[in-house]
Fold each of these.
Amino acid sequence: MSFSDELRRDNARDWDACVDHRFVREIFAGTLPPEVMRRYLTQDYQFIDRFVALLGMAIATADRFESRIRFAQFAAMITSDENTYFQRAFDTLGVPDAERRHPVLTAPTAGFQTLMKDAADSRDYGSCLAVLTVAEWLYLSWADRAGEKLPVDFVHAEWITLHNNDGFRSFVTWLRSELDRVGATADTAGRTNAAAFFRRAATLERSFFDHIYE
Ligand SMILES: Cc1ncc(CN)c(N)n1
């Protein structure tokens, strides 16, 4: 079994809870209440900020140019297509500027920020990769539903298509192969560290979905 499959299997409870989450069912059905989507997106925008910083550390610590290019291209997408989606969704949902920039952070958002800072501060490529892989592979896992119709509202539909398009799918395939490659050459401590970051990320993903309904 590959390293990434092993990590996913070891975190199956949190992983499966996210893939089958109420948020996922409601966003596909187009029934996600606007106040829930608003809470989700205002918190997630703070996630994205630190996520881009972590991508920067992956670019800095990667062991080859080819990997840096992949991350740089992905960072370009997040800071263009995904960033403009957030702005258009905030406009539609009536989120004022102050709340876009400085919302009161919830515990899962603050937890993610600490996790991403810890991964970046480790300056360990495998640990950065583990967190990035959970964030993107888990999102592909819930968003990639063959044959499912898209909801009408762009705020719902585009959040799905940002996470199930061909470019995203190929980035996730590459991320997993990169984690497998790095895991195969890492020593026991390196694999243990990456596994611990993977676990923290999977747990937080689940509480992030849960908390927007609390
Ligand atoms: C919490 C969270 N996790 C993952 C993703 C996917 N980039 C996201 N936008 N937000």
Amino acid sequence: MSTHSKPEPAIFFILGGSGDLTYRKLIPALYNLFLDDWMPEQFHIIGIGRTAYSNEKYKAHLLEGIHKFSRRKNHIEHWNEFSEHIEYLKMDVEDDQAYQSISKIVQDKEKLFGAHPNVIFYLAVAPQLVPDIAKHLGQLNICADQKCCRIVVEKPFGHDLQSAHELNQLLQSMFDESQIYRIDHYLGKETVQNILAFRFANALFEPIWNRNYIDHIQITAAESVGLEGRNSYYEKAGALRDMVQNHILQLLCMIAMEAPVSFDANEIRNKKVDVLNAIRKIRKEEVQDYAVRGQYGPGWMKGQKVVGYRQEKGVNPESPVETFAAVKFYVDNWRWQGVPFYVRTGKYLHEKTTIIVLQFRPAPHYAFPPEAAETWRPNRLTISIQPNMDIRIRFQAKRPGQKMTLSPVDMVFNYEEAYEDHSPEAYETLLLDIMEGDATLFMRADQVEAAWRVITPILEAWQNRPPVDFPNYAPGTWGPEDAEALIARDGHNWITLPPLHQEHEG
Ligand SMILES: NC(=O)C1=CN([C@@H]2O[C@H](COP(=O)(O)OP(=O)(O)OC[C@H]3O[C@@H](n4cnc5c(N)ncnc54)[C@H](OP(=O)(O)O)[C@@H]3O)[C@@H](O)[C@H]2O)C=CC1
Ligand SMILES: O=C1O[C@H](COP(=O)(O)O)[C@@H](O)[C@H](O)[C@H]1O
């Protein structure tokens, strides 16, 4: 979010350096920053885990991750230069004595750099290890330096409101809030950051961005993948915790927030937390009117046979865990009173797509002859987050010819067509922000808790009332029928993005 200059010298400790996140995301992102000349002049990366790796084996393992997962899989010409900055430390994070090695490395690097580096502890470990690690790190002298020492905490941040609150209290007892970076990788996506630019760098849209013009809003974050090996985590989470509590509510905040006075991290976060606090609390007894859950059964995905969720390895054969969730929210404030926000997400859905749709109200009066159009399509603004990266505005246009015949057309801004520059991966942006000490795109303690508060009644109602109809959707569909009913009851339907230039429906 900052307007970047090259960061100060930095030491990265990745606790969980032998794990999947480091392999898939963190090292590819750091390497891309290196290729783009964004890494500090002096930096060092220490991967930590219990697995026995020599430095050479560790680097070879990480290089394999670049080949598989980096957006620049084959750009390895600078890998040797980059990997000189990497080492592996075999360490059990539950061993109290082991933390001395960390202090020693920092002292050695300080001498070598001849400067006081920023020290970043990235906790890429299972959530149950986080409290213990934070306690140990908090006791190190280097962490008393509020300006230089930072701790990065991955999702899930807590399992519910109470555990999130306890984790916040613990972290804040060891670190200043300004040192804590709670990751929500959606906030690092280019198209998500662009929502702020679109809304607040243009005078055109803000006057109509409210209940007077907008009929309803939809947010779809559909995935075509399944569990991707994270079965045991997912069985404790489910779609509501995994996607709605964090990513989807953050998208909703970006759409619904008031204009910030400045781009100060706390100013933006204040405006977002105002939205979370304004979301109408769903009463437990009304949860079924506002929320729908689903679980996929066995079926086919892109020509491949897939097992149902309950048949996945490590999953309870009678699991009540939802792999799909749809919710209708209201934001009770002057801007959004009465405007429903429909959100949905799920695994093994028809296609991977994350879109935000602002459906405008119809024009107040159509003066055109009845034969001008079969049906009137109100204006619609669609923000495609991924995999398409575009913004489309739908409006009525006169078809060429002697008669006044109208049809809907799209005005499109497409990232790839508009800019030659590539878009960085979310983790690249976020890691650079951490190095620069810019917390704008990270979750503050009160934001995380406010988001848990929003979904708590649904979590509790679902826990108290086990599902009777699971599995209730087939892989490759758009989820359970009840999700269609949720929105159809209000006279709407879920909008999926047609390919550009295709005739509009719905
Ligand atoms: N993977 C992903 O795509 C995503 C992951 N996340 C989050 O990131 C975090 C890490 O996930 P992921 O990488 O998938 O998990 P993995 O299970 O792949 O990795 C866990 C890491 O923790 C290390 N570890 C476990 N116990 C100890 C210990 N006692 N001492 C030292 N190291 C230990 C493991 O090292 P070793 O076995 O060598 O001891 C390993 O490096 C989780 O919170 C997850 O929710 C969030 C979004 C996406
Ligand atoms: O945080 C998570 O996000 C991914 C989806 O991320 P995306 O960037 O591919 O949209 C999701 O698959 C995973 O279950 C969840 O933990």
